[in-house]
Amino acid sequence: MLEGKAALVTGASRGIGKAIAIELAKQGANVVVNYAGSKDKAEAVVDEIKQLGRDAFAVQANVSNSDEVKDIIKQTVDHFGSLDILVNNAGITRDNLLMRMKEEEFDEVIDTNLKGVFNCLKGVTRQMMKQRSGKIVNVASIVGVTGNPGQANYVAAKSGVIGMTKSVAKELAARNVNVNAVAPGFIATDMTDELSDEAKQQMYDLIPLDRLGDPEDVAKVVRFLASDDANYMTGQTIHVDGGMVM
Amino acid sequence: MADVFDRVKNIIVERLDVDESKVTESASFKDDLEADSLDVVELVMELEDEFDMEISDEEAEKINTVGDAVNYINSIQ
C-alpha cells in the first residue's frame, strides 16, 4: 500500500505517533521517527520498524523550533531521496481551568501543537511541490471540534490545526498534495492516563461504540489518508472517536 | 547579464507555458505572464536550483518582474 514511500512522523516515540509509525511501516513505508525527549523509546520504535524489513531512523527535534524542523526534513530527504508522507502528531497538554491557566501554559501548548504543525507544513511544502505529490495528515483532536473544559489552550491549538488543514489543503491542491486531519476521541495513551477517573467515566458514557480507542484505531485511518486510496480527499477532518461526535 | 536573463527566461517559458516574446525584463509575473502566487513561489524554487543559491522569503516577496529576478541573481553572483 505504501511500498517504498518515505514518511516523517513527529512525536513518534509513544502513544498514537508510535502506532502510526509502525502502521505505516507495516504497509511498506520507510519512517523517520521524530521525538522530543524519549530517545530510548524512539530507538525501540526504530528497531520494531527495522524488524518489519523497513528502513527507519530516529531524530530528536522540538517541532516548535523551525530550524530543528528544517533539519529533520533535510535529513529525511537526504536519506530517503523523497518525502512522501508527513504526519504531524507531536503534541503536549498543559491542562488548567482558564482562571488558573498561566500564560506560559498557553504559549507552550500553542508553540508545540499549532506552530509546530505550521513549521512542519512549511518545511515539507517545497519538497512536496517539487515532487508534485505528497500526503500530509495532521493529528488534531475531537476536542478541537467540541471544546473541553480545562483545555482552552489545547482546544485552541487543535481547532487551529483543523482550520490550517483546510487552508493548506486549498493552497497545495493544485500541486497534488493532499492535506487532511484526524480527530481522535478518547484514546488510551499516556496522555489520557493522566485524566481523573471521574473525567474518564464521563467521556466513556459518551462513546456509542462503548470502548476507549486504541492508538491503532487512529493509525489505521492515518494510513488510509496517507495512501493513494485517499487521492480524492483533501481538507477533511475525520473523527476517530467511537461515534462520540457526529 | 544576457546569460542570466536567458536562463531565467527558459525556466519561465517552460514553467508558465508562455510565449518567449512575452518574457521581457519588465514583464510582471502576475499581470503579464498570468502566474498565480503559487506559480511564483515555484518559479523562485527553480531559480534557486538553477543558480545554486538560496533566495530568502523576504527577497522572494520583492520579485515581481522578470527583471527583478535577473537583477537579484546578478547582485548575488
TrEMBL record, chain A:
Identify the metabolic or biological route this protein is part of: Lipid metabolism; fatty acid biosynthesis
Q: Note whether Metal-binding occurs among the keywords.
A: no
Which protein, by its recorded name, is this?
3-oxoacyl-[acyl-carrier-protein] reductase
Q: What EC number is given for this enzyme?
A: 1.1.1.100
Any GO BP: fatty acid biosynthetic process
Quote the InterPro entries the UniProt record gives.
Answer: 3oxo_ACP_reduc, KR_dom, NAD(P)-bd_dom_sf, Sc_DH/Rdtase_CS, SDR, SDR_fam
UniProt-listed Pfam families = adh_short_C2
Q: Name one GO molecular function term.
A: 3-oxoacyl-[acyl-carrier-protein] reductase (NADPH) activity
Source taxon at top rank = Bacteria
Give the originating organism: Alkalibacillus haloalkaliphilus
Coiled-coil residue windows: none
The reply on keyword Lipid metabolism is yes
Q: Which family does it belong to?
A: Belongs to the short-chain dehydrogenases/reductases (SDR) family.
TrEMBL record, chain B:
Q: Which cellular compartments is it found in?
A: Cytoplasm
Domain Carrier: residue ranges: 2-77
Free-text function comment from the UniProt entry: Carrier of the growing fatty acid chain in fatty acid biosynthesis.
Provenance organism? Alkalibacillus haloalkaliphilus
Q: What is the lineage of its organism?
A: Bacteria, Bacillati, Bacillota, Bacilli, Bacillales
Name the PANTHER family for this protein.
Answer: ACYL CARRIER PROTEIN, CARRIER DOMAIN-CONTAINING PROTEIN
Q: Which keywords belong to this entry?
A: Cytoplasm, Fatty acid biosynthesis, Fatty acid metabolism, Lipid biosynthesis, Lipid metabolism, Phosphopantetheine, Phosphoprotein
Pathway listed for it?
A: Lipid metabolism; fatty acid biosynthesis
Processing and modification events after translation: 4'-phosphopantetheine is transferred from CoA to a specific serine of apo-ACP by acpS.
Gene Ontology molecular functions: acyl binding; acyl carrier activity
Q: What protein name does the entry list?
A: Acyl carrier protein
